[in-house]
């Protein structure tokens, strides 16, 4: 199984320096805010998004000061969206630890998210990296639109496959796309290559989200069966959308009524999960995921072979093979 630390090897020095710069960007003279920033730094995840930035820049053999700005900008804005997402979802945990809103409540959490967002935007302005600011601001706009589109369609349960891909292109793929685009931009790559990397990132992001959809149907080691959390939260994911298009009217009505009116019923959720499996919903989603994976890897074939390219290939494969 691929390990993140091995994928990071070509950019190990850059990532270490980035972490230092990112920590510095979060320093503040407000004691409460500084305490929360320290909490955020301590629980940082795999940092896949900065990895995409640095590996893309190194693909063009040109990591610059702008590359560090791009990585910090994206990580700040990504962290802001996570803080706000936990408020929207009323989630008390993130990556197995307490969320900001669980510890400091919603009012403070909203302000923390706003601080992170403004800090990122200000960082780009301070460094006069206006093209990077444009790329990432477009991603934030798309993410907001995607979230609102999902809320609107979830209320009516009218998400078609086309709408689903529109939502995840905006919600998930937009940020990974901006990582690759800004990495190429910071490396002063040719315009046509910057565009290629933007499309590459979008395809990786779509594959990433489909993989997340599939996790809902994987057996939880604690409870011994799939969680069905997306179904409980009335989220229409690709395996479920495919199933709704395959089943008869009676089964379709059962699924819709359960999600609308009885989404906490464990027995009914389990029945829906079984319907998804019986109707090849997981297989269909996996095939779609692998199609986007292949298309992303095909784009990389246009570029020279180097360590960064190999790590990008491994990072893309990690996205669809990860266990959580």
What does it look like?
This protein is an all-alpha fold. It has one domain: Farnesyl Diphosphate Synthase (Orthogonal Bundle). It is 76% helix and 1% strand. It is built from 15 helices and 2 strands. The protein has a two-stranded antiparallel sheet. Strand 1 and strand 2 form a beta hairpin. Helix 5 runs antiparallel to helix 8 and helix 11 packs across helix 14. It is globular and about 60 Å long. The model has no long low-confidence stretch (mean pLDDT 88).
The level 1 CATH classification is: Mainly Alpha
Count of DSSP-assigned helices: 15
Strand order of the largest sheet: 1-2
- Structure class: mainly alpha
- The rounded distance between the terminal residues' Cα atoms is 13 Å
Mean pLDDT over all positions: 88
Helix percentage: over 70%
Q: Could you say which overall geometry the principal axes of the C-alpha atoms support?
A: globular
Main pleated sheet: 2 strands, antiparallel
Order of H and E elements = HHHHHEEHHHHHHHHHH
Second-tier CATH architecture = Orthogonal Bundle
Look up the CATH topology.
Farnesyl Diphosphate Synthase
- By CATH, the superfamily comes out as Farnesyl Diphosphate Synthase
Beta-strand segment tally? 2
- Portion in beta strands: under 5%
Map the helices and strands.
Blueprint: H1 4-7, H2 12-25, H3 31-42, H4 48-59, H5 65-88, E1 93-94, E2 97-98, H6 100-126, H7 130-156, H8 161-186, H9 191-215, H10 229-232, H11 238-246, H12 249-261, H13 266-278, H14 281-300, H15 307-321
Antiparallel strand pairs: 1-2
Helix pairs in contact: 2-5, 4-5, 4-8, 4-15, 5-6, 5-7, 5-8, 7-8, 8-9, 9-14, 9-15, 11-14, 12-13, 14-15
